């Protein structure tokens, strides 16, 4: 199946004002570009940006934040949460601004911006591996989250039923994605994303509301959950990764912005930024109450998923877990779409496979099956959060945008912009180096007692 050339970008105003002839692309190349998921549709509104970003951020991460607080303590926990919110909002603003910094051109993908900042080859090698680790890592963790939440729903609703392995619940969750993964582009999953965003706000409210209703547990203890010095240190480092995981929207922000129409008079950065601000308000409304109230109520006895700690009222906890399932269905698709774009780009442009339904069906099905298999094999929820959060999320979220900003805009040395970016870079590098250590230790400890596929 071949793709017929569609109308050029110049005739799709106000969708995109990037002239095809500028980079020498043929009509066939342009047709392929218009077929790929990221470039296929450019008619999104600003509110698409809002709920896509909410769906991308508020997910598995928010449920692990009370646990992170129990590893950090009140002072360090609140400081890390607030600093992360401020730093990641700043770096997200930078990415929105850099999306179309060059007149007549849009950087629709994270790696395209990296290539402009660092060079064609170096930019690709710097950005693509990190972005893939983030997006594939999120998809794996969301497979685990979806399976865990389905299991919790089943066990809550039917206490007397036969116990079913987590493996089967992950497979049930994955079955939905074998279907949804065939939706072609970001705008085609906007309904799923909107439902997911509403669910994230709803179950976050249930999580902290039920915690308030339950009140402090008897003899609540706010000391760090580990009792040994090594345990406290590794727990602290792992918690940093968990917080980093919670702020992950940067990895798909350029791809989301690519769906918004843009002209020189009305650049996409204005509606995109409006959506980002709304999204970050929602993030704050979800993250801070869940983190602080959850830790206040349960102290260092809170589980790595706050909804597991809560057990009553049963109907409300069952509802919240089903909301989590719906939300991570949308989140999985948001993070999978740029991966689909990369896979299909390689298959069509490099390996010269004909673009079409057959290619999409096979490639995306194989990808979903891969993430399901890894999730079934390594379902260590909190360890996965902290490991991936530190190893990959810190670079792409906390400091890589700052490095690109310094490389492209070259602010005056010792100016406010220069200082701000270097502070973010230093903090981000420390996070990248330290956080995976705690997460890896957590995974190793749980792996010692875990039986595969049980």
UniProtKB/TrEMBL annotation:
Residues 43-438 form the Amino acid transporter transmembrane domain. It is found in: Cell membrane. Residues 1-15 have a biased composition (Polar residues). It is a multi-pass membrane protein. It comes from the Eukaryota. Gene3D superfamilies: Amino acid/polyamine transporter I. The chain crosses the membrane at residues 46-65, 72-93, 122-145, 166-183, 189-210, 276-298, 318-340, 361-381, 387-409, 421-444. It holds the Pfam family Aa_trans. Residues 1-25 are annotated as: Disordered. Its main location: membrane. The keyword Signal does not apply. Keywords: Amino-acid transport, Cell membrane, Membrane, Transmembrane, Transmembrane helix, Transport. InterPro entries: AA_transpt_TM. One of its GO terms (cellular component) is plasma membrane. Belongs to the amino acid/polyamine transporter 2 family. Amino acid/auxin permease (AAAP) (TC 2.A.18.2) subfamily. PANTHER family: OS05G0424000 PROTEIN-RELATED. This is Amino acid transporter transmembrane domain-containing protein.
């Amino acid at each position: 199946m071949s793709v017929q050339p569609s109308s050029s970008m110049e005739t799709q105003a106000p969708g995109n004002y990037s002239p095809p002839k500028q980079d020498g692309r043929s009509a066939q190349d342009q047709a392929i570009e218009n077929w790929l998921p990221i470039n296929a549709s450019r008619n999104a509104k600003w509110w698409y940006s809002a709920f896509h970003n909410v769906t991308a951020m508020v997910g598995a991460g928010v449920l692990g934040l009370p646990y992170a607080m129990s590893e950090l303590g009140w002072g360090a926990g609140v400081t890390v949460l607030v600093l992360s919110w401020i730093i990641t909002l700043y770096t997200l603003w930078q990415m929105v601004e850099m999306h179309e910094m060059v007149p007549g051109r849009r950087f629709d993908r994270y790696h395209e911006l990296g290539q402009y900042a660092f060079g064609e080859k170096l930019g690709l090698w710097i950005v693509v591996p990190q972005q893939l680790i983030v997006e594939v890592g999120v998809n794996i963790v969301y497979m685990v989250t979806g399976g865990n939440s389905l299991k919790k729903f089943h066990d809550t609703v039917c206490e007397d039923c036969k116990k079913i392995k987590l493996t089967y619940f992950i497979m049930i969750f994955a079955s939905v994605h074998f279907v949804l993964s065939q939706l072609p582009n970001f705008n085609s999953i906007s309904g799923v994303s909107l439902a997911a965003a509403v669910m994230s706000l709803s179950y976050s409210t249930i999580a902290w509301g039920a915690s308030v209703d339950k009140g402090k547990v008897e003899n609540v203890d706010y000391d760090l959950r580990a009792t040994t010095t090594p345990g406290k240190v590794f727990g602290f480092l792992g918690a940093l990764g968990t917080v980093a995981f919670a702020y992950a929207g940067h990895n798909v922000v350029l791809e989301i912005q690519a769906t918004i129409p843009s002209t020189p008079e009305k650049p996409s950065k204005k509606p995109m930024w409006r959506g980002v601000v709304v999204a970050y308000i929602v993030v704050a409304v979800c993250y801070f109450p869940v983190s602080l109230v959850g830790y206040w109520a349960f102290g260092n006895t809170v589980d790595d998923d706050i909804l597991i700690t809560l057990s009553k009222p049963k109907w409300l906890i069952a509802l919240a877990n089903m909301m989590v399932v719906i939300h991570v269905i949308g989140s999985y698709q948001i993070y999978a779409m740029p991966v689909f774009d990369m896979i299909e780009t390689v298959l069509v442009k490099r390996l010269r496979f004909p673009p079409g339904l057959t290619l999409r069906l096979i490639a995306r099905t194989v990808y979903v099956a891969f993430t399901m298999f890894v999730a079934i094999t390594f379902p260590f929820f909190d360890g996965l959060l902290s490991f991936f959060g530190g190893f990959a999320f810190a670079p792409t979220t906390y400091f890589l945008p700052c490095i690109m900003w310094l490389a492209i805009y070259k602010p005056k040395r010792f100016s406010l912009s220069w200082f701000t970016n270097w502070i973010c870079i230093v903090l981000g590098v420390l996070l990248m180096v330290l956080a995976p250590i705690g997460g890896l230790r957590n995974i190793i400890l749980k792996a010692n007692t875990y039986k595969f596929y049980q």
